[in-house]
Specification:
alpha/beta; seven-stranded mixed beta sheet; six-stranded mixed beta sheet; 11 helices
Length: about 350
């Protein structure tokens, strides 16, 4: 009940202050004009990664697809995240932990999706010709302490037993490949990488439109109801109808559909960027341009962007001046990892 009462965060559709909007090589799409009484096979609510992929594949299957986004495609979390694609669960979560909750059949099926996710993302980017500064140089989970090393080793062993394409790396490898101080060992998945997430969203939207999907921006869905053998939606002040509806609102889920908001726990994180670093400094920081995420919740991750900036971040600081605290904390973590 408490989660359902929380105010749903509304992001700025113009992505003011989001660096990915400034560096995206994919232009904003031309949205499909809306018309009163439009009829679809499939109506999708939400224009992030999930909604856009659903629109693309639905249109390719021959469905008449209409996607409704309250802002602009990718203007929510999909276009604001760190752009790191790790073929792994969060933190020290293992495939066996997930199977213990979901059961063996579903757990193994999900693990297969997760560990092959990096390959899917970058193969799709290449197939669709999305210009999103994608770099599939691998992703690493390093350990910053003996306790973390034991957890990370257990994660690696679990993925290895699952048949995942993983390799164990030692402290010397991490010093050489990450240039970061203090890591004791870890594991690597070669299919992970980094990209501009907003540009990827725009490229997916362009591909979905090319396949025949209608994508409506600045068209928030304010009402949805069953109507006979279909669904009636009100979006952008207009009514339309669909055989099926797919809600892909994720962390922006509100009271649109009864009970759905109570199944979502929004997590708030932030990303920070340095200025573009001098060429000489780039040689000693992530020299192989692999990205990494350790198991700390307080900023143990880094990647390059296309302009020579280092990106890191943290969970959201809700107390006091969150912006200033977040920048101070990220600066402290970066200086710990990269004293130079």
């Amino acid at each position: 009940r408490r989660r359902a009462m929380m105010a749903v965060p509304r992001c700025d559709a113009d992505l003011a202050g989001v660096i990915w909007a400034k560096t995206s090589k994919e232009a904003p799409i031309m949205p499909t004009p809306m018309s009163e009484g439009a009829d679809y096979d499939l109506a999708i609510v939400g224009g992030g990664f999930l909604g856009l992929n659903t629109a693309l594949h639905g249109a390719r299957l021959g469905l008449k697809v209409g996607l409704f986004e309250g802002g602009t495609v990718g203007s929510g979390a999909s276009g604001r995240n760190g752009g790191i694609a790790p073929p792994h669960y969060p933190g020290a979560l293992r495939p066996s932990d997930v199977s213990a909750v979901l059961g063996r059949r579903k757990g193994e099926a999900l693990a297969e999706i997760v560990t092959t996710g990096g390959r899917f993302i970058f193969d799709q980017i290449r197939e669709l010709g999305i210009d999103c500064d994608a770099e599939q140089n691998g992703w690493i989970q390093p350990a910053h302490s003996p306790k973390a090393l034991a957890k990370v080793r257990a994660v690696y062993d679990d993925w290895k037993a699952h048949g995942a394409e993983v390799e164990w790396v030692d402290a010397d490898y991490l010093r050489s490949e990450l240039g970061a101080a203090g890591y004791l060992g870890g594991w690597r998945h070669p299919t992970g990488g980094a990209l501009n997430p907003l540009a990827n969203c725009r490229g997916l939207a362009r591909a979905a439109q090319k396949a025949g999907a209608a994508i409506h921006e600045r068209a928030p869905v304010t009402a949805i109801a069953r109507d006979g053998d279909g669904i009636t939606l009100t979006a952008g002040g207009m009514r339309c109808r669909a055989r099926k509806a797919f809600l892909a609102t994720n962390g922006y889920t509100d009271g649109l559909w009864p009970g759905l908001a109570g199944t979502i726990i929004p997590l708030r994180l932030f990303q920070t960027f340095t200025e573009p670093l001098p060429e000489a400094m780039r040689e000693s920081i992530l020299p192989s341009r692999q990205c990494f995420t350790d198991i700390r919740k307080s900023g143990g991750f880094c990647r390059w962007d296309s302009a020579g900036r280092i990106m890191s971040g943290c969970v959201h600081f809700a107390l006091g001046d969150g912006h200033a605290r977040g920048v101070r904390h990220t600066r402290m973590r970066l200086m710990e990892l990269y004293p130079q």
